[in-house]
Amino acid sequence: MKRQKHPLIAGTLILTATGVVTRFIGFFYKIFLSRAIGAEGLGIYQMIFPVYGVCYALTTAGAEIAVTRFVSCEAGKGNLKKARSVLHMGLFFSLSLSLLAMLLLYTGADLIAARLLQDPRCASLLRLLSVTVPFGACHSCICGYYYGLKRAGIPAAAHLAEQLARVGSMLLIYRVALSEGRTLTPVYAVTGLVIGEFASMLFCLFCVGAGRPSRGKRGRKDYSLASLARGMALTALPITGNRICMNLLASAEAALIPFTLRQYGLSTERALSIYGTLTGMSMSFILFPNVLTNAVSVMLLPAVSESQAAGRQDQIRRTLQKTLSFCLPMGAAFTVIFLLSGKFLGAFFFQSSLAGDFIITLAWICPFLYLNGTLHSILNGLGKTGPAFFNNLAGLMIRIIFILLFVPRVGIEGYLWGLLANQLFVTLLNLGILREYLTFARPS
Hints:
Layout: H1 7-36, H2 38-47, H3 49-76, H4 80-107, H5 109-116, H6 122-129, H7 132-148, H8 153-179, H9 186-210, H10 225-264, H11 268-287, H12 290-309, H13 313-350, H14 353-362, H15 366-381, H16 385-410, H17 413-433
Helix pairs in contact: 1-2, 1-8, 1-11, 1-12, 2-9, 2-11, 3-4, 3-7, 3-10, 3-12, 4-7, 4-10, 5-6, 6-9, 7-8, 7-9, 8-9, 10-11, 10-16, 11-14, 12-13, 12-15, 13-14, 13-15, 15-17, 16-17
């Protein structure tokens, strides 16, 4: 008899393999950007992403998770037509909100850039970025649908298509700019982002169009679209509210770091250069191993939801224990690696000793950073979205307090201390909520 692959393991392996490829591409793309637009340009480019995060939270975050959970439930019952209706409902909600968000971001770009981000140069980037909001909403909902079906290959391929289109278009733009004697600016980098999101959306639409459920009887539906919409909204709204709040605070954080660095005594150019080095260069290394834990996190949510619905508490307990026994040793190993090689990595890849210093300091957050993503996914899978939100909110508030109190006095080191305190505190809070699953199950 043929042994069937466990969907959690198979999905994790697919997402990990694709994630490694896309992270490699993205990592060298960051190196290319740092040299093409400079550290200051990279800092300006990085500043717009928390604003995009707010748009994503408003239009997509809740809808994607609701689609994944409802599709997982219906697919488990063999009701693929209802699962398809879940996707259509998610797309309707998400695209309606995304068109509104695109309009607001486009018309309010000058105000957001000047008042929130404290840099008017971000306005043109935000206007261009607004175009990606509907693209991202569409492809995220479709990816959520396939995650719910435990078919991770299509979302993985969509992410790969997005990355290849982004990098390929940017390299083409670079060659054209060079031939015309123009220098690259952050606007070109955002153009690559738009092209990548558009390519990913087209790929997802092709897959979902080609993969219609098998023809069945044309009888009456045994469910009401209104009740389905109500149930999805009850799942999506708390997550959407939580994500909006978190991303608004993250946007404030992105604006506060250059601002407090100027209070420390640095020029605007130097403050943005340090911010770009930290977020665009050093964090690229620290987050690279996260590709594996991210893949685990994506597959954990439907798996834990399914175990909870079936009342399999021991299965949830074993899942948490395996997560801890994998993420903590992995994080400790990379802490040692980055401590020993941080200087070399910064100098070799970015020609920046400052990037190397940041890598060494950030190395200490690795065990907590890699663990927290999986713990958060387990909490969402258990339906504990409120406590998960509170924990992340508390951690973000710690970072903002460190920025306000320490960065004006000691410089960027104050923010790095805040990152460590944040990750440690959130890990303890997450484990506290999951403590009932931390006792080892007795062998049967």
